[in-house]
Amino acid sequence: MATESQIPAFLTLAITIGLVIATGVTLLAGYRVIRGPTTPDRVIGLDTIGTNVVAIAVLFALRTDQGFFIEVGIALAIIGFISTIAAALFVTGGDVIQ
After folding, report:
1. Contacts of 23 by beta carbon, 8 Å cutoff, 6+ apart
2. Model confidence pLDDT, tens digit, residues 29-87
3. Is the backbone of residue 73 left (phi > 0), alpha (psi -120 to 50) or beta?
4. Rounded CA gap, 10 and 16, in Å?
5. Quick one: pLDDT at residue 4?
6. CA distance 96 to 90
7. What angle do CA 6, 54, 11 make, to 5 degrees?
8. Do 57 and 77 meet the contact criterion of CB atoms below 8 Å apart?
């Protein structure tokens, strides 16, 4: 496990900035999910939140040097992909299971 002194300072700064930006974009996407105005806007907002949560998990894994969060990110990416496809099918056709 890498300690804080083994990680270069610029990499630590870049990861911190990435975490702050990803968190901010996630909050903005949350606003889009709540306010709409249309259902496709809400679906895109949810997909953006899912993608940003994966990015946050990976950045946190880099920051803490714990590979478990990479596995969490992969699982969240798979679930996010499947849910986006299901939501898109529902929005376009009104039926998820055909």
Report:
1. 52, 56
2. 999 999 988 888 888 898 999 999 999 999 999 888 888 989 999 999 999 899 888 88
3. alpha
4. 10
5. 55
6. 5
7. 25
8. no
Q: Extract the tokens encoding 81.
A: 């992909």
CATH number among 1.10.443, 1.20.81, 1.10.287, 3.30.410, domain 9-89: 1.10.287
For the chain, domain boundaries: 9-89
Nearest-angstrom CA–CA distance, 88 and 96? 9
What would you report as the CA-atom Rg of the chain, rounded to the nearest whole angstrom? Answer: 17
CA–CA separation, 84 and 45 (whole Å) = 10
